[in-house]
Amino acid sequence: MLIPIQKRPPLMSTYELIEKLEKLDYFSDLFRSGILPPHWLDYKVIYEYYQEQLKKEKLRKQALTNTADEFNVSERTVYIIIQKMKG
Question: 35, 46, 59, 75: which could form a disulfide with 68 (CB 3.0–4.6 Å)?
């Protein structure tokens, strides 16, 4: 006998989850208590800057380079942050 497969709602991205959590009254407590790592806020800011650069630049590579320069991190670091925020 086959069990019917239920459709699951699509998972939200890490960025969307952080956006949702920010609306909670106890959001800062989640960071202070160590439940959420504090660097996720930095990642969010970097990701938002990258998204703005994508709108301005024609090439993703240029948006990535601009973001890396702005935050004084490597392009690889920006790429990893982008992947984390999308995932």
Answer: 75
